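In this supplementary section we document a worked example of the pipeline. Step one takes a protein sequence of length 137 as its only input; no multiple sequence alignment statistics are reported here. Step two produces a three-dimensional model, which step three serialises into structure tokens for compact storage. The input and output of this example are shown verbatim.
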Amino acid sequence: MNKQDMGVNVGIDVGKFQLDIFIWERDRHFTVENNDSGVREAIKILKRYKVQCIVMEATGRYEMAFATAAFEKGLPVAIVRPILVRQFARAADQLAKTDKIDAAIIARFAALMKPRLTKQRSENLQLIKDLVVVAGS
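The serialised model returned by step three reads:
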């Protein structure tokens, strides 16, 4: 099996205004805005690859637009607790912090740790969770 046949693992550092995306097996980084057009652009790029897993940290809702779009396109997504990635980075002695480095660490985490995929939530369940978050604020 050659490198082109292998799937890729993707790490996304989610920010309020941008998504830093790193494709581990291709050593490729790109950034898009965290809005509808940026998400569409990112999905279009990722659909060119055989994606094994896209990993994002749970950020308190900023990851949901991308996750929903990825689910709709049949891409495998794992939304993980940030502490898991932080501990992984510490174990890898990766202490520097930039959005690009964070995305690369998340992609490396995806490739090596093989986190469990997140199941897509029904639209109603997501609305209820959103209401609970807003009410608790």
